Amino acid sequence: MRSRTASVALTAMVLLAGVATAGDLVADFVARHWKAPLAPQGTPPSRFTPVEASLAPESCGACHPAQLADWKTSLHAKSMGPGVAGQLADMLHADTASALSCYRCHAPLAEQRPLNAAGQTFEPNPVFDAALGAHGIPCAGCHVRAHERFGPPRRAGSLASAAPRDTLPHGGVTRTPAFLSSEFCRTCHQFAPDEFRLNGKLLENTYNEWKASRYAREGVQCQDCHMPDRRHRWRGIHDADMVRGGVTITLAPDAPRLRTGAVAALTLRLRNTGVGHAFPTYVTPRVVMRAEQVDGDGGTIAGTRVERTIERAVEVDLSREIRDTRLMPGRAAILTYQRKIDPRAAHVRVAVVVEPDAFYARFFATVLKENLVEAGAGRGRAQIERAHEDARRSPFTIFERAIAVEARR
Ligand code: HEC
Ligand code: HEC
Ligand code: HEC
Ligand code: HEC
Ligand code: HEC
Asked: Looking at 114-123, 132-141, 198-207, 273-282, which range is the least confident one?
């Protein structure tokens, strides 16, 4: 018995030591892999064919078509879209150091940066590849360092190579569990403690919100929700199905009877039941819960609308946090509607609308109005105009009910 207990204790210690080491290995790998700014890839091994040496997503896609097709539809592929590129066009001239700081998250490879810092000044980057620069976060941004491929363990869990590595395309893959961990996403989705705060809270805090949630305790990683089945789609607040899947919306009573002249009493509840961090996590989206009376033509009857917003609202110039009504995991927001039904009302309409780019719609409008881009010679104006249009057009509805008003007999 004694020796059995001892061996159980010993096994537990070995396991615990093993767990601690695994965590450290992940942290060490992530620190090395994402050390900013990333170093140039250097000269490819001489036995690489041009397609193996290429950093272009299309080249990876020649052999990995499923990942390329998914990635193309993701925001990671669009992180050098008109909103970012439009701002950078001027910022690169007006405030080069700040502009270069954006590349760390929006176009992380050394080959994507037009300029390098050289002491107090800046010089053209000899390895700059403009086409790659426009690709946002390319495959190689996450998977390639010094032309070596890094990736997750095999689906069965093994880190072993299927064949001698020098016989495999691009010399095979260095496999590490770090790719399965939230730590891998942290560099870009979490500000460091000394970065920008408003009202005492970091402007970007997704990893920490996750870490404090039950999902972290239960071992549910970012990838489990955002890369199910290892898909490269990274759906988030811009996708109606993803948002619906993260929340539970109920209307009570279930089958309300509404009569002209009577008082409507409705309760709309939205609970964060499947979002692994605050809903929403950033200061940019806004979610609106709304109830209102509409006439026979579907027009809102003045004075009957009640709204409640779920958001971390900040001033356009980031000078102040206006309110923070976001929902941590498990939390709910409630809208109660208690209004006399107007004689013109045909329906009471209840809805939940998501505005994924609410902040940017305001921000780009301000930039255009105050001619902030003109101050930098307006190189980015046309792109900012497009980004403003995109941001204005992105809202969608995730819940809608129109409850008919019965005429008084
Ligand atoms: C000429 C074909 C070819 C090209 C081009 C190519 N790969 Fe691969 N890649 C393969 C093959 C074959 C494997 C499987 C190797 C193995 O089983 O160890 C693989 C494996 C991988 C893996 C691990 C996949 C797994 O199953 O876990 C990653 C990640 C990867 N490649 C990334 C890339 C990236 C990023 C690029 C572009 C920069 C790229 N590859 C370009 C053929 C290619
Ligand atoms: C190199 C930096 C970087 C890394 C690493 C990174 N992301 Fe992102 N991610 C971004 C940027 C930048 C955007 C915004 C792109 C845009 O809209 O311009 C983004 C967007 C997203 C979105 C879409 C948000 C929306 O508004 O709908 C999701 C979801 C996401 N990332 C999840 C992840 C996950 C999960 C990981 C880890 C596997 C990860 N990201 C790793 C930089 C990164
Ligand atoms: C720490 C990583 C990080 C840094 C540094 C960063 N961003 Fe972002 N940025 C993000 C993430 C993550 C998102 C996605 C937020 C969302 O979708 O709600 C984003 C979204 C955006 C968007 C809206 C999406 C789009 O494509 O239009 C713009 C514009 C933007 N960033 C501009 C910048 C600029 C300009 C800088 C440099 C001054 C910068 N960012 C620096 C992570 C970063
Ligand atoms: C933002 C970082 C990021 C980008 C960009 C990215 N990947 Fe991945 N990739 C990952 C992560 C993380 C995993 C592991 C996901 C998991 O297992 O949950 C992965 C897994 C893979 C795998 C293994 C898939 C499997 O079924 O085992 C391949 C192959 C791959 N990526 C290729 C690519 C290619 C090709 C591109 C570009 C078209 C790309 N990746 C872009 C982060 C990224
Ligand atoms: C339990 C599932 C789950 C986990 C774990 C999770 N997310 Fe999400 N995430 C969601 C859902 C659902 C949404 C859509 C609703 C929303 O935007 O909040 C979302 C939205 C997002 C967005 C869109 C921007 C925004 O303002 O909401 C980003 C970026 C993001 N997640 C990144 C991450 C990162 C990084 C991690 C890991 C640190 C992570 N997520 C962990 C489910 C999850």
From this structure: 114-123
